[in-house]
Amino acid sequence: MLLELKNVFKWVQQGGQHVFLLKDISLQVEEGEFISVMGPSGSGKSTLLNVIGMLDDFDEGSYTFLDDPVHLLKAKHRANLYKQYIGFVFQAYHLIDELTVYENLEMPLLYKKHSGSERRAMVADMLDRFNIVGKKDLFPTQLSGGQQQLVGVARALISQPKLILADEPTGNLNSRQGEEIMELFRELNDEGVTIIQVTHSEKNAAYGRRIINLLDGRMIGEGR
Amino acid sequence: MYKNFIKIAWRNLMKNKGYSAINIGGLALGMAVTLVIGLWMEDELTYNDYFGHRDRIALMYQSQTFNGETGTGPAIPRPLEMALREGYADNFKYMAMSSWNNAQYLNYEEKSLSRTGNFMQRQAPEILDLHIIKGERDGLREMNSIMLSESTAHALFGEEEAIGRVIEVNSEHDMMVSAVYEDIPANNSFHDLQFILPWDHYVANSEWIRDAEDQWSNNSFQLFVQIADNTTMEQVTQAIKDVKKDLNEDTVEFNPQLFLFPMKDWYLRGNFENGVQVGGRIKYVWLFGIIGVFVLLLACINFMNLSTARSEKRAKEVGIRKSIGSQRNQLIYQFLSESFLVVALAYGLAIVIVLLSLDHFNELARKEVAFPWSHLRFWGASLLFILSTALLAGSYPALYLSSFRPVDVLKGTFKGGKYSGTPRKVLVVVQFAVSVAFIIGTVVVMQQINYAKNRPVGYDKEGLIQLPTMSQDFEGKFDLMRSEFIASGAAIEMATSSSPTTQIWSNRAGYDWDGKPEGFQEDFAWTYVSTEYAKTLNLKIVAGRDFSKDFASDSNAVLINQTAVKYMGITDPIGLLLKDEDEENPDEPLKIIGVVEDMIAQSPYEPVKQGMYVFDKYGNGSFYNLRLNPEQSASQNLAVIERVFKEHFPDIPFQYDFVDEQYGEKFASEERIGNLSAIFTAFAIFISCLGLFGLTSFVAEQRTKEIGVRKVLGASVFNVWNMLSGDFLKLVVISCFIAVPIAYYVMNGWLQDYPYRVVLSWWNFALAILGALLITILTVSFQAIKAANANPVKSLRTE
């Protein structure tokens, strides 16, 4: 098992009352799964993803990631954990505008203390694999949205994570570009990478092998 | 990793050229100010470092108490030397009696120079550790020898060999050059020691000095010593402090206390108040040090505020980096290395600014500070300076920026919190509080100078010159020269005096008069003058009469000033006799014939001292005082006077001083402080405004949409301007409330040093506050009006 959430609650205080963002979420994810999280705006999809990605805390419940009790870990250990096993893909790509494609890809490796030659090899590998060798010296703003998201996925993959978390990865793309990214996800999944994506589109959700529906912070159903 | 950091920092700088310019430029200015002040402080603090034995060199000082007032100074009597040599020789490695530093004429063939130097005893070159270039270290052994500084020797002989040549001193004495020593550099106590003549020569050629050999109350000499290797200054002082008291009964009532004044204190801690050492210039060294730190702080605040204000732009990057696996301390390192880059760039720029302005600064501060290119210590200190500035400026932004949570900032809705601007506001208040305090300080210093300058001096100092006449060539020539000068039409009156108009060279006691209180220990400023003195100076006679050639008895007449009348406790001074208390060989009594208005001869910040202007029957005059002909220009008059002078004294260089300039010198030190603080204040304000300008443009940018909405809803340009400027004006008002009490306290303390001082009035402070507000409005308005004038359609579309 890759990760398990048990009875997770998350709330914020508003006017003396708890407003629940996540309500009693229990979820098991096995390695190699491809999960789509669906639900209307404000249903807690992104919050769930952030909790899984350890970017956000929760108030009650437990979370186990590869046998480590995440809710008990210190910030530094948690960072080490997700640095090693989790890659993020964002709707707005979130590439660093001041760095070139090459440097953006290299950045996660810097935080993992790979040697210079290792980094060069890994970045070259990635550029090659995504067919963006010719773009390596361009800055993000010089690329189309689809190309930027391609770089975003490449960056998420470069540190060879077990799990990719994608928050509406095609939300800013046209349908053709979106399809390309989804195809890419399917390929990755076939290679054994676990993927959890948040999406609005039924069509994209269908790429997942399991669909989780959220409403007002509560899981209201699972389908396959 | 650091390469990546620096790369990002560099690209950020290049992308936001405006911000970068403000950031780096402001920081560079601040650092330049701090650097200049640092160089100046270094120069001050290393004063006298030239002397190898500086830790063991001292000047003999003496404190004496008259009427409960203790005066302290380096003047000691001659018999003390023998007493010390006989009874206390163990305490000293070397001793050297010395005259004061005086100008003498040095003539060689056609050349005639006026140079300053001392008569000193034989061990002086050892004490001063003179660097002998040619000749012998023991160059004062022969009575007719002279030691010359390198530049003096060069001026006299050019490239020719100096040793063994004979020069004429004051057209009287032939002296043979025995040694040439390296010039003593500017920031040292003996920098004007351009020659040394043997002490024995000094004694042999003056009767009054010979007479002084057994006069314990004739404090007219200096004694330099180097203490023995096995003792300390304190121990020696302990041993010798009562020597004069023990050996001489006559002066016991003044309780003379001797002590060694160490060389390290001469320059920076030379002030004594009622017998107690109270510091001195060191006060200004620290004052400017504090100013330097504050100016740097202001620049650092700009950096902090602009970095945190722009945090929204960097927030996304922080979020991405964190979600990719960066830890907080890695981000802190990143932002610190960014600030290091900015500070390093600013420092480079600061060095350029310093190089460009160092000459002007030297002129202003009367310094010869050089840029220490080759000093390893300087570059070490520079690195430390850059690192500490980077830490000071960068730590707050680094901590703040690295604290963002990726979940918050990556949503794209990050706007800082409600209070995220508060630290920024606090920093702006600090900046302006410092600036306003600087403004007030400068205004007060300027006012005090003006106040003292406008004080009536008691005589007419314009169109008055003085010529030094200390050489024997002038003996008996006064009447001739006076009539020649007047006949030439360049001068309308002339008088001699024993001290310059703007100084008092001699003080006297030892007189009795009717009605003198029992046990009164009098002390008068004592000036010998010729008959025409009051007339030449336009000194007003307020009672009695002036000297007159018509009264033969005037050879024993004296004029006293108004303060002296009060001081002596008499109501009707005219005709009063001053009787010499010397029982063995009394001078004839002096008769007071008139009272003159008080004239300022010493510090313009202090009350005028009780003074006597004694008829100069001995020909003691050291100066000709000439009242120039007001009908002609000064340069015309001077040309004529020089011609007449040269006709009579062809061998003597023509030297003169304008009395009003000499008087102006008294303000030099305060004016220097005033000018420097004005300049530093200007920089402080400029730097603060630079930061404010950056902040306003940031706020205007941040509120573009709000301004657009307001304008659509009917807000006028004025409303928007008011809204944007008002926030900042409030901050400046708060800083005024902080600055005023602090500035009042500090400046009031500074003024206590001046008995004659301006009264601090509310308008000083009002002026400073008004100035600060005006500057703020101007700075803020530019951006505010630009924002207010923007077309709302455009700004609302940017979403």
Number of strands of chain A: 10
Give the total of beta strands of chain B: 26
Structure class of chain B:
alpha+beta
Number of domains of chain B: 4
Report the β-strand fraction of chain A as a percent range.
25-35%
Give the uncertain stretches of chain A in residue-range form.
none
CATH superfamily of chain A: P-loop containing nucleotide triphosphate hydrolases
Low-confidence stretches of chain B: none
Shape of chain B: elongated
CATH class of chain A: Alpha Beta
CATH topology annotation of chain A: Rossmann fold
Domain count of chain A: the total is 1
Strand pairing plus helix content of chain A: what structural class? alpha/beta
Question: Cα-atom Rg of chain B, whole angstroms?
Answer: 34 Å
Biggest chain pair contact, residues each?
A-B, 28 and 26 residues
Mean pLDDT of chain A: 89
N/C terminus separation of chain B? 35 Å
Please report the distance between the alpha carbons of the first and last residues of chain A: 18 Å
How are the strands ordered across the major sheet of chain A? 6-7-8-3-9-10
